[in-house]
Amino acid sequence: MGEQITFWVLAVVSVAAALGLVFNRKAVYSAIMLAVVMLSLAALYAVQDAPFLAVVQIIVYTGAVLMLFLFVLMLVGVDSSDSLVETIRGQRFLAAVVGLGFAVLLILGIGNVLVVGEPSLTAATQEAGGNVPALARLIFQRHVFAFEVTSALLITAALGAMVLAHRERTTPRPTQKDLARARFLGPQPTPLPGPGTYARHNAVDMPALLPDGSVSLLSVNPTLARHEVEGDTPATTPEAREAAVLLVAAEDREEPAAEAGEETRTAGEAEARAEADAEAPAAAARPEEETK
Amino acid sequence: MTTHYLVLSALLFSIGAIGVLIRRNAIVVFMCVELMLNAANLALVAFARMHGNLDGQIIAFFVMVVAAAEVVVGLAIIVTIFRTRRSASVDDVNLLKY
């Protein structure tokens, strides 16, 4: 009875997570869904008298393989979501039909398996005194050659990964002199301005204010600029980044205004006001306006 | 009860196959391959219990080892391709097509 409850709960969870893995557009969500599937499979192994495999599943799959997947996702770019362009027309639909047909065939075929008697592993494991000793006896006696070959496979895989991921340096490493020269020849010899904190925020996507009250676009790292609110995609064009930075500044000004019941001031108004202030001879009136 | 496990493993395997067929991101395709390997492992464990001997569990163990090695090499290949082509989409790797 307990096994049945475990099975049905985990079956529903794992199938739902597998569907989520396939149909999520973001690769990181897919990886998390894969973790859910692997953990529920580990629990199913434990229920089926395979405690050793359950532990190995958690350590090897959710521990090592999945972390490797996440690391590579970070390397390749988290926002590398799928393109929806079909290079072969009707390929997605046909693939879904073929997959469903395959599922039906597989389930019909495998559903005809004859199960004789109550399945139990006690007879096989009792002699060695448990699941792990029994498995060890099999691995280190009957399958010892396969086990040794496995070690060669693992070494080859580690070497192969190192060779494939290694990158030869084709240009000499830039020295400090080269870096300093490039910096002074470039557009910005000084360090870039730090993000603005306004004494209320410590987020690094908060742009700094210039002395005239306008927003400094240089103070926010382009990759950190707030993602577009609706599209949830990173701002790629310079204009989009500028808009994102201005949006953050505007949000920050709206917050205290709403608390104090004052008029809302947007970044655009602030810029217009800054320009007007720069033109007006009595620029000293600005601090009073700010303190008010 | 064993049949239930086999049907579940068949379902997971088919979902993985559909994912391999319809997804474009190489890493997600790779994850779906892992899902298929896991489904096969579940069937092996179920068969081991059904027949009352441990050979199925041994095979599942070796499948895990081979899958770990495969993931390492496969992800290294994906990283290498991404470095040269700046893309992880399987549609972009079509130099051998023409």
Automatic annotation (TrEMBL), chain A:
Catalytic activity: a quinone + NADH + 5 H(+)(in) = a quinol + NAD(+) + 4 H(+)(out)
E.C. number(s) listed in UniProt: 7.1.1.-
InterPro entries noted in UniProt: NADH_UbQ/plastoQ_OxRdtase_su6, Nuo/plastoQ_OxRdtase_6_NuoJ
Chief site of localization: membrane
Subcellular location: Cell membrane
Any single GO CC term annotated in Swiss-Prot or TrEMBL for this entry: plasma membrane
Annotated spans, Disordered: 251-292
Membrane-crossing segments per the record: 6-23, 28-46, 52-73, 93-115, 144-165
Compositional bias ranges of the Basic and acidic residues kind: 262-276
Described function: NDH-1 shuttles electrons from NADH, via FMN and iron-sulfur (Fe-S) centers, to quinones in the respiratory chain. Couples the redox reaction to proton translocation (for every two electrons transferred, four hydrogen ions are translocated across the cytoplasmic membrane), and thus conserves the redox energy in a proton gradient.
Protein name stated in the entry: NADH-quinone oxidoreductase subunit J
Automatic annotation (TrEMBL), chain B:
Transmembrane domains' residue ranges: 6-22, 27-47, 59-82
Molecular function terms, GO-annotated: NADH dehydrogenase (quinone) (non-electrogenic) activity; quinone binding
Pfam families named among the record's database cross-references: Oxidored_q2
A single GO cellular-component term on record: plasma membrane
Topology in membrane: Multi-pass membrane protein
Alphabetically ordered keywords of this record: Cell membrane, Membrane, NAD, Oxidoreductase, Quinone, Translocase, Transmembrane, Transmembrane helix, Transport
Reactions mediated catalytically: a quinone + NADH + 5 H(+)(in) = a quinol + NAD(+) + 4 H(+)(out)
Function: NDH-1 shuttles electrons from NADH, via FMN and iron-sulfur (Fe-S) centers, to quinones in the respiratory chain. The immediate electron acceptor for the enzyme in this species is believed to be a menaquinone. Couples the redox reaction to proton translocation (for every two electrons transferred, four hydrogen ions are translocated across the cytoplasmic membrane), and thus conserves the redox energy in a proton gradient.
Family of the protein in this entry: Belongs to the complex I subunit 4L family.
Record note on quaternary structure: NDH-1 is composed of 14 different subunits. Subunits NuoA, H, J, K, L, M, N constitute the membrane sector of the complex.
Protein's recorded name: NADH-quinone oxidoreductase subunit K
